[in-house]
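hey so u asked for the seq, here:
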Amino acid sequence: MLSFIPGIDSFEEAVKREMAEGSLSGDRTKFKPDTQSFTDKYIGAGLGGYTMEQVREEVAKRQAQAIEDKYRPDATRTKLATDGTQIAAPKLGNMTESEYSAALGESEVLGNLTQQVRAAGGTDDDLAGITTAGGLRGALKKVTDREQTKAEERALQPGRDALQEEQRQFNVTTGNLASQQKSANEIARQQLQLQIDQAKSNDERYFHESKMKRLDAQEARADSKENAASQLELARMQIEMQNADRLDERQYRRELARDKRSQDLVTALASLATAFVI
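ran it, structure tokens below
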């Protein structure tokens, strides 16, 4: 407004002068002590139609823009690293340049670690409440170990499945063999029982036929009462019939040999008796 007066500059010139002199604090919220231009503070600010706070605000705005432009590549990487995570990309705000640079680097590291945890198989539960690099590295190790264990289990599973299948087939085969053996045993038992029944039937028929033969012989010999040899033979046959009725098959067979000797004796006696009759 009064810029035509020597020593009084415009607002724009005041802003440029304060920026060049670095008058603001690092966080751009105030002027550094004793750094303001005397002309701006005592002359220009009063007569130029602007205040020093207005100058500070404009200087702070331009300095912040310069910092953001300088660190835009870093901010872009940080945003990519933190997108979709619990880590928030930092905003410049009232941070100093060094603080902003450090915050961008830290957030990028945290975002990358978070992405690694997710890539390793981590879930929101694995990341809940973790906002430090140490915590994220611990979560990454935990998730990595867990997923490695799962991978090992998956690698072993086909072998377990094969063993289970072999066991199942073995059980089936064993069951079939047991069933077949049971059937074979039952058939063998039935066959043995049939043989026993047939042998018993044969023995009964044998004893019946033997008895009938003995009776027939007895009746044939009984027709000749006067023949002493026939009488003796009849007596022998009667004895044999009585013995045979009491003995079972095995006893009867053991007696056959002895009966033959008895028969020879009876025959001899019969011959002797015949001699006396004559």
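Residues 192-277 form one domain. Residues 96 and 194 are 110 Å apart (CA to CA).
lmk if thats what u needed
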